[in-house]
Amino acid sequence: MEFYNYSAVKMDGKEHSMEEYKGKVLIVVNTASKCGFTPQFKDLEELYEKYKADGLEIAGFPCNQFAAQDPGDNDEIHSFCQLNYGVSFDMFQKVDVNGSNTHPLYKYLKNEAKGTLGSSIKWNFTKFLVDREGNVVERFAPNVNPGKMEDKIKELLGKN
User: Fold this and answer.
1) CATH class of segment(s) 3-157
2) In the chain, what percentage of residues exceed pLDDT 90?
3) pTM
């Protein structure tokens, strides 16, 4: 199955196809609002603002699987992201990224780009970079600041 065949529920409660991102460069990231990496929301938003006109999109997926660092409901998480970090990129409803209830999109992403723990997600803010054709081109560890992805993003956007 290819990337564009998957869908997920956005914060608005509606199912959205990944096909919305066809022709775009996309960062898919599992997020948490009470994590040491939470300030990455600011860095992600800065990348989004800088490159959205060129075709960059970001899809955030809250997850509460790592030390229960995103315990709120979807409304609380959405409000937190907007109030504290001005997040304007797409946020989806909370998902599992590991285990028996792993969201199908995350099963696909993990299979396409393995990390240091094989196919498991290690922690919050694991980032997957998807090109304009829906290929998962790279996986970035949680401790990699989104700004360090900028050269690769520019390359995929054709801005080098």
Assistant:
1) alpha beta
2) 74
3) 0.94
**From CA 130, how far away is CA 31, in angstroms rounded?**
17
Between CA 46 and CA 66 the distance in angstroms is: 25
**Residue 90 CA from chain centroid, whole number:** 9
Structure tokens at 118: 């094989």
Question: What whole-number distance in Å separates Cα of residue 39 and Cα of residue 147?
Answer: 12
Assess contact for 84 and 139: CB atoms under 8 A. Answer: no
| Domain definitions of the chain by residue range | 3-157
Active site members: 35
Regions of the chain short of the pLDDT cut 50: none
Other CB atoms within a 10 A radius of the CB of residue 141 amount to 12
